[in-house]
Amino acid sequence: MIQLEDVSKAYQMGKIEVPVLRNFDLTIDDGGMVAIMGPSGSGKTTLMNILGCLDVPTSGRYLLDGTDVSRLSDKRLAKIRSRKIGFVFQSFNLVSRTSAIRNVELPLVYAGVRDRRNRARLALEQVGLGDRQKHMPNELSGGQQQRVAIARALINDPALLLADEPTGNLDTTSSIEIMKLLVALNDAGRTVVIITHEEEVAQFAKRIVRMRDGHIESDQVQGSRTEVSA
Fold it and tell me: Among 79, 80, 129, 204, which is 20 to 30 Å from 155 by CA?
C-alpha cells in the first residue's frame, strides 16, 4: 500500500534550507494499522502530509498502491486524495450550520456525485450514527462529531485512512470508542495510519513507528495490541 524510498524533505527559509525528513524509508502493507509517534519537530506531521499527498518529497520516491506520486501535478494529487485517501483530524472540521448527513455528503458534492443522500446515510450507519443524521454538530458530543468526521472520510471508500491526533479533543471514554471504531475499520480490511503522541492510542495499532529528527528511531510490531471488546 505505502512505500517510501530514501525520501527527504526540506523547506527553504530565506537562504537557509531546513531538513525535516532525511533519507526516510517506510513500508506499510495493505491492511496494516500503524501508529506514528514522535516529539515536536520529529517530522511526523511532514510525513503525514506526504503520505496524504498534501505535499511531495524533495527527493526520493513515494509509491501509493503501486503508483509513484512523488512528482505528480497538484491536479493529479488532488484526484488521488479524493479517491484513495480519507482524512480524520483532531478538530473534526465539521461545518457548524450543517446537519451530520450533509457534512458527510460534502466530498460527494465536490465530486459532482448524484446519489449522495443514500451513501451518506450508509456511512453514518457504519459508524453507529444512523439515528443522528439530522443533528447539527453542536447537538452531538465530541465523540459523535468525530464519528461524523470518520463517516465523511469513508464516503468515497478510500483504501487508506489517515488520522491525525483523532482523539486529541476527546475524553477518555470517547477516545476509546473512536479507537474501537478505527480498529473495526482496519479489521474489515482498510489500511489505517494514526499520528499520535498518546501511548494509550498507539497501543491499539498493530505496529508503532517512533520518529526523531526526521528519522525512524524504532519500528515495533506489536506482539498484542489493546483488546477491543464489543
Answer: 204
Report the 3 state secondary structure along the chain: CEEEEEEEEEEEECCEEEEEEEEEEEEECCCCEEEEECCCCCCHHHHHHHHCCCCCCCEEEEEECCEECCCCCHHHHHHHHHHHEEEEECCCCCCCCCCHHHHHHHHHHHHCCCCHHHHHHHHHHHCCCCCCCCCCHHHCCHHHHHHHHHHHHHCCCCCEEEEECCCCCCCHHHHHHHHHHHHHHHHCCCEEEEECCCHHHHCCCCEEEEEECCEEEEEEECCCCCCCCC
Confidence of residue 227 (pLDDT cuts 50, 70, 90): low
The pLDDT tens digits for 49-93 are: 999 999 999 999 999 998 999 888 888 998 899 889 999 999 999
Q: What are the sequence ranges of the domains in the chain?
A: 2-221
